Amino acid sequence: MKTWLITGASSGLGRLMCETLLARGDRVFASVRDRAVLDGLSAIYGDRLQVTVLDLSMAATIKPTVEAAFAQAGSIDIMVSNAAYGLFGAAEELSDRQIERQIATNLTGSIQLIRAAIPFLRQQGGGRIVQVSSEGGQVAYPDFSLYHATKWGIEGFVEAVRQEVAAFGIDFLLVEPGPTATRFGAGLDIADALPAYRDTAAGKLRAALMSGEFVIKGDAEKCVTAMIAAADAASPPLRLPLGSTAYDNIEAALKMRLHALQAMKAVAYDADRQEG
């Protein structure tokens, strides 16, 4: 039996992960913004499910929540930083408040969650942190600029921190799902449209999304199965792309970036200081 701490467990991948882990006999500490959404699971699994209220946008509440979970659990094998949502709209269309909340939840909140867990994982001799990112941590769509800023940001944070804590037996797994059939779309914070963007790439994607033409290939249950298998593995990969859309988009983006980088090699080398 393993012990997990999972944020954003009220719906989507987080909820499915909780259900799957509890069904196989594990113990789960689940954070949600509304405790009642997990009452049904609590009735079935009793003390193996501990539910706590946490809103990652309220940074001051993160450390006490993590401390309480470790104190009650004794030790936690795997922490899953899953809580996040999408902000949709061209950058000019977004309000300051929307931008602040997106960064506070997806980026600052995830950073503070990881920082709060590290001392406990270090003291217990190791552990694993699963950070749910997105294909949007490697590629970019119009209308998701702030969402991408948070996902590219958290991936950079994890890349650095994993090097800092590897000596303590702490490792990381970055999960990068593509568009998946969850309630992510229903939870989008959508900015009011500006007419100027109607015929741009941003306007066209908005029209496709609102009309239902945007293709979603990912299967949520298959994604959760792959996430748990990777989290259980003795030596998981750093990055786990999920879904053909994620794989194809990330592969194409990396090839384009590598090609563009290689074209700049001479310019880059010419910027070095000359010896002698």
From TrEMBL:
SUPFAM superfamilies: NAD(P)-binding Rossmann-fold domains (SSF51735). It comes from the Bacteria. Coiled coil: none annotated. InterPro entries: NAD(P)-bd_dom_sf, SDR_fam, SDR_oxidoreductase. The keyword Oxidoreductase applies. Keywords: Oxidoreductase. NCBIfam families: PRK06482.1 (NF005065). Belongs to the short-chain dehydrogenases/reductases (SDR) family. This is SDR family oxidoreductase.
